[in-house]
Structure formats: C-alpha cells, structure tokens
C-alpha cells in the first residue's frame, strides 16, 4: 500500500493537508495477455487478448479485491472457436457490480451465465449446469440488449444482469455482474437447442425431441421369472445403461449385418452408433432422431445380454415408443426379449427372442403387463424330439403384471427347427391372435457334449474365466480393447470399460462414474478385475 499526502494553502494563508492510501492489487491472467488501465473513477479496465487474438474486456469497480486465499485478482479466458468463455475471480465492494465484453463467435446463439461465488466452467462443452449456478439465456439480436434475472436461490439472491450484442454481432456485453462465469453456447442449426445438448446439431428440431425432428422413448427392463406355469416375476428398470441407435438404411453397417438377436452384439461392437443416450434410474431415455430407419441396441451391465428393438421408419414429428427387454429364467439363463404392444387400454406382451439350452430342460416364459382387463392364452408346439409340460396356458390380466411359463424338455432331434408359439388376447369383446418362431441357442459346452456344434446351429460361446489380471502397461481401456480385438469400435470399448468399472467400483468421473472405492489410476499390476460384463458380452456374439 502507498500513502500519498498532499498539502495546500488558500488565499487567506490557511494551510491544510490530506492523505490517500492506494492499494494496488495484482491481476493474474490465464489464457491471454492483459493491458491494465485505471479509469478516472478508480475502476480498473482489463483488456485481455486471447490465444486467437480476440479481445475480452473487464471493468472492475474501485476497491475490488482478490478472493481469499488468493493474493491476486484472477481472470481466465478461453479464446476458442466457436465457444469463447471467461471467468473472473474477484471480490467487489458492497453495492457495486462489474461489466465485460467478450467475443460472440459466428455460431453463438446463447450464453451460460453463472453469477455466483465460486462458479466454474462447464464440465463439458454445451452444458450449463444449474447445479453450478448456470442460467442459459438466448442472446438478443445484433444491436439489442435484454435484462435477465439471475441467481434465484443463491446466497446473493435474484439480481438483474443486462446482456447485449454489438451492432455488428461480433461481441457480447454483460453488466450488473457480481461474480462471473460467461460461456458462449453455439446453436449451429438455430433451433433453440444448443449444440452440446442437441442430438442433431446440424438438423433443426425441437427441445422436446432433443433438438431433432423426431424422437424415440426407450425403456430398458430386466424381468426375473421363477419356476412354474404361473410363476412370480419381478421387473426392474436398467439404470445408467448406454442405449445406442443404429441406422438401418440400405447399405449401412448395421443393415449389412442384420437385425436379429444374433446380430445385436456384432452391431454394437462393430458399427458406429448415430445417437447414444444413457438411461435414468428407471431405465428410461429419450433419444432424438432424424427421419429414417433405426435400430435400438443396449447391453445389460448385470447379465451382459445385448437387447435390441427395431424402431422402424420415422418421419419428422414422430415420437416412437420402444422397449428393450432382458429376461432371466428360473435356470439362471438370460436372454433378450421382445415386446408386442396392444392398444385400447394397453397390454404389453413380453417374451424371449430365443431359448438358451445348457441342459436338457429350458423355460419359455410370457410376461404380461396390462392396463384394464385382458384375457390371454398362449400355446407352444415344440419341434420333433421335444416335449412341453403343457400345450396351452391362459389367464386374466386385470391392470396387473403376470407371467405364464412353459417348460420344454429335450428328447433329442431337430435343434434347428425352433419352437412354434401362439398368443391370443381378448379385450372388450375383441380377439387378436399372432404366431412366432423361436430359435434355439445352444451353450457351447452343451452343444459339444451332444455333438451338436454344427454350422447350421446357433452355438453361443461360453467363457468360464470371470476375472483378468492387470499386466504391466495395462489400463482398463487397453484390457478391454485387447479382449474385444483391434477391429472393435471405440464406442463399444468405452461402453464395456464403463461396465467393468462399475462392477469393480472404479471411479471414472469424466465418464459419469464419480463414486467408487478406487480410481482407474489406482489399478496396480497383478490386480484381479471382475470382467464378467465383458465376457458375457463376448459370449453373446
């Protein structure tokens, strides 16, 4: 601090003096160079040139201090195309505010304002986390400004911040700021949904459809069925699972492989998804789509089953509803399921897409979930050499969740023929009936023991080893990549790394796995990892 004293004598010979204490605070700039000038009112003008030569200007009122324990006022600028950002760490005198001007960028349509103490930049581009004090506002037109109420529920309380855009549209101004993080948010297709939250950033859509012209609501569920002809069954939504959408247009990677249960794991590992979303705690996710033909695929992190569902052809404005099902039978086998939806009052009919044989007995359950009263009847016709415990089962499902189940016994003959099934449902005097052919999938050891490992049969590889040892130079990524093979897509590797991390309680915060007993960096040579999700995934290929 410097003390400046000045003395003066008036015309009558009276002498007086006054002293002023001047405190100079240093300014630390990150991401650019600064020129600091003092305005006549004592305020500081910071002219910061960013890494790409663009100018950021901050005006701090007289008496501005560092935020303890820092000893200097901190300003961080991110001069990147197309999302410039600025953060100012400073304590202002009571009753004062600061202002700034920053580049807008040609695609900047929104700005995230975080005017609370301790605010930080977004954890990922395009996010404006409310939990981090973020308020996303749409920028006014060039040459205009608007007042926005910021800070509801914070320690500073609700206050007005004025946001404007220069006449030439090149810069954004903000005044009335108390703390300050401002981040420009791009909206390439100008549909009101910023690119970081837009499933279709280059195609105009709606906020309800995640920035896309169409969407699909997907539910990912696991049903565990007990033994018996009318068994108990429980349903859970599969949380935190990645749901991927693949194009089924002619010539696409997925369409060239197919769309049967045999193909799901191959598509997930070998094709690039167009859209990916993660299920919530209830197993639900909405994914934006463009017009076209689509296939949904997801892997259950608990059982390793890869489930799929054809979305079919969607057009602009469509909102499809689809289900991804996993069924765990009484003998512990897990299979993907399919859902038939009947309307009126709604009935969901859920059944396995195939039967897994690892012994001479297997189960084939039906699960019914109804709104309203429905009569249901199911029947099976086994192929030559197989018998069912009963031919027909029926029940009434009245706004309930019920299951019916057949036990099929192998007496040895046509394994390639599959199981013929029939379903009849009745509601409000109307009856509908449909039939299906269900393929047999043989567990590898069972097939070899029965000398059934033939090219025309579906034999599922089984890997008994459920753990792998960390070797020198290994990471989770390298380990999973090695097991999948070099041709596996990064998306599939990432999905399975997340599943292995979850089951081993390994934290990977940057991938949304913040809770864990250890971090990925804590994994030492010789550590044994449970890799059952990876091995179950491989066994379904």
Summary keywords:
single chain; 541 residues; mainly beta; nine-stranded mixed sheet; seven-stranded antiparallel sheet; 6 helices
Please describe what this structure looks like.
- Strand 13 (159-165) and strand 14 (171-177) form a beta hairpin.
- The radius of gyration is 32 Å and the shape is elongated.
- Strands 16, 17, 20, 23, 24, 25, 27, 29 and 31 form a nine-stranded mixed sheet that branches.
- The chain contains six helices and 38 strands.
- Helix 4 (476-484) packs across helix 5.
- It has 541 residues and is mainly β.
- The chain is 9% helix and 46% strand.
- Mean pLDDT is 87; it is low at 20-24.
Short description:
The protein is mainly β and 541 residues long.
Q: Topology of this protein?
A:
Layout: E1 2-9, E2 15-22, E3 26-30, E4 32-38, E5 44-50, E6 55-60, E7 72-78, E8 85-89, E9 98-103, E10 108-113, E11 135-138, E12 145-150, E13 159-165, E14 171-177, E15 181-186, E16 214-225, E17 233-237, E18 242-247, H1 253-257, H2 264-270, E19 275-278, E20 284-289, E21 292-299, E22 306-314, E23 319-328, E24 334-342, E25 347-352, E26 354-357, E27 361-370, E28 373-381, E29 386-388, E30 392-398, E31 401-410, E32 419-427, E33 430-443, H3 444-449, E34 458-460, E35 467-469, H4 476-484, H5 490-503, E36 506-507, E37 518-519, E38 528-530, H6 532-539
Parallel strand pairs: 3-7, 16-23, 26-33, 33-34, 36-37
Antiparallel strand pairs: 1-2, 4-5, 5-6, 6-9, 7-8, 8-15, 9-14, 10-11, 10-15, 12-13, 13-14, 16-17, 16-20, 18-19, 18-21, 21-22, 23-24, 24-25, 25-27, 27-31, 28-30, 28-32, 29-31, 32-33, 35-38
Helix pairs in contact: 4-5
